[in-house]
Structure formats: C-alpha cells, structure tokens
Amino acid sequence: MRSSRNTPSRSAEGPIRLLLWVVGEDHPKACTGRKLLRRGLVEPSRRRVAPGREPVLLDPHAPVPLSRADRAHAHAGGVLGVDCSWNRLGERGAYPEGVADLPRAARRRLPYLLAANPQHYGRLGELNTVEAFGASLWILGEPERARSLLAGFLGGATLLELNAEWLARYARCDGPEEVIAAERELLGPADG
Fold it and tell me: Is 58 helix (H, G, I), strand (E, B) or coil?
C-alpha cells in the first residue's frame, strides 16, 4: 500500500524515533530527559497514539526484555521513555496514571545493564533517561546513534565502556528468550 504525500511513512530504513513523556518529578536542571528535549534529540510524547503507531514503552517492570525482535515495532512507532523519579517509581510500583494506561504499547524492560550516571553509578538497572535511550538504540541496531546521543552527557561514554560486553551480547540476541539466557550467563549463578 502506498503512502499519500500528506502522510509520512515510517520505514525500517530511517532512524528510530525517540519519544519522551516528562512526568516532572526530577530536578529540572539535572533531568537528562529535559536536556534531550531542549537539544532536539527526542520528541515530546503525545498522549494519543494512532493505531499502528504504538511505541515500544521502556518499562522497568515489564517481564519481557527489549531485543532485536522489537526493531520493526520501534521503527513503526518509536521508543517511548518516561522521565520520572526512580524513588517515586519505586513507591508507586508502576508509572504514574496516564502513562500506565497507554493502550497497545509494547512494554519492554531494558536487559540488565550497569548505570554510569553519577546518581546511580554501578547500580544494576538504574539508568537515567539518556542512558536508557542510548542502550535501546544500541540493542535495536543503531550503535553509532547511541554513541552520538550519549556523547553530550556526563557518564554517557562510560555507560558504553562499562557495559560493552553486555550490550554486544544483547544486540546479537534475536528475541527476548535469548536476552534472558544472556542475562543469566552474564550475571553468573545466583548465590545461596
């Protein structure tokens, strides 16, 4: 089916759109999500999503990890990050009302990675917004864009160095089952 001239088509050839929903719980000057918006590196999220354009929602509570299997979905609808406080997210156990109710969004958690940002350095899975977008791009097959996105942020390059083996491994996984197996191998056996 051909696209009309008035309707932009999304192809697997173009870059993946990065969308951001800012909840506004973090300090505005320290918020990497707001910096991404100011620099024009991400688009503000719209609350209404056209059918067939649903994003991949980065959700730390989702059971399914992001993998190459999500590339087509990400090219069609983008990757949606939610900029909110880790402390408030932990208190609620989920995203704020509205975000949690996004219809038909493919909810994916990032595979296990170590944070490189100053607030959560070395903590497993506590990435800030720019780190989450950078890791997503890497896993979805846009490593150069991930490098470029992270370059202007404190700890950005460190994220890639700290997680080089893990990111390379996750990027080779065809689906979520392979990512889960890779996580188990990379973390090693559980004690106890």
Answer: strand
Residue 104 to residue 106: CA distance in whole angstroms: 6
Cα gap 189→192, rounded to integer Å: 9
> What CA–CA distance (Å, rounded) separates 105 from 4?
25
Radius of gyration of the chain (CA): 16
HSE, side-chain direction, 13 A CA sphere, residue 190: 3
Backbone φ, ψ for residue 106 (5° rounding): -80, 110
**Could you report the per-residue pLDDT of 107-152, keeping only the tens digit for each?**
899 999 999 988 889 999 889 999 999 999 999 999 999 999 999 8
Tokens in use for 13? Answer: 């050839």
> Do residues 111 and 170 touch, judged by C-beta distance below 8 A?
yes
- Give the SS3 label for residue 79: strand
Q: What is the pTM of this model?
A: 0.82
Q: For residues 125 and 116, what is the distance between their CA atoms, to the nearest angstrom?
A: 10
